[in-house]
Specification:
about 0% strand; membrane; about 190 residues; flat; mainly alpha; Tim23-like
Length: about 190
């Protein structure tokens, strides 16, 4: 009879002396292989999430402030509860609308800029215009404006695309005049 508290004998491991490491991991070379880490700044997905979040947050704040301004001017009664209700209604209405709009435009912009970057558009157009850091942001601005207002008709979509590419071009001109580095913060084209 065996005691229930006694330990079982230890398991014996098989001998691994005859196994060569090259057979187990055949890809091992005599020299180390280095990873090609040629990523400039953040990755596409990180920029997309960051731009969308910042756009939504800043748009909500700006729309909420505009809603407070319109709520203060349109209060029909001088009672405190009515004023607070008007402020909350207006800031909620405009804050959510502007926040959603700016967040959607930021998402579209990040997608189209990332697609232009993946397609390496700057290398294709290099013989025509040279090395320009504004090309992929300009493509992103144009296509995001076109896509955002595409359901409103071709005229409105073209106007929105023109506003998008104009915003990128205007910011590029401003950074060139002031001597700043273009697209250094990774928030949309800023």
């Amino acid at each position: 009879m065996t005691d229930s508290n006694s330990n079982p004998p230890p398991l014996s491991l098989p001998s691994l002396d005859g196994i060569e490491l090259r057979r187990v991991a055949g890809g091992l070379a005599a020299e180390p292989e280095y990873l090609d880490y040629d990523i400039k700044g953040r990755g596409w997905m990180e920029r997309t999430v960051s731009s969308t979040g910042w756009g939504y947050g800043l748009g909500t704040i700006a729309g909420g402030l505009y809603g407070i301004k319109t709520g203060m001017s349109s209060v029909p009664n001088s009672r405190f509860k009515v004023k607070v209700n008007a402020l909350l209604n207006h800031s909620g209405r405009y804050g959510s609308r502007v926040g959603n709009a700016v967040g959607c435009v930021a998402l579209l912009y990040s997608f189209f800029e990332g697609a232009a970057e993946k397609l390496d558009v700057e290398q294709v157009t290099y013989p025509l215009i040279g090395n320009s850091p504004v090309l992929t942001p300009a493509i992103g601005g144009l296509l995001s404006g076109l896509a955002y207002k595409s359901t409103a008709g071709p005229r409105v979509a073209a106007l929105s695309g023109t506003i998008g590419i104009g915003a990128v071009g205007g910011y590029y001109a401003l950074t060139t005049v002031l001597g700043w580095k273009f697209a250094s913060t990774n928030f949309m084209f800023f």
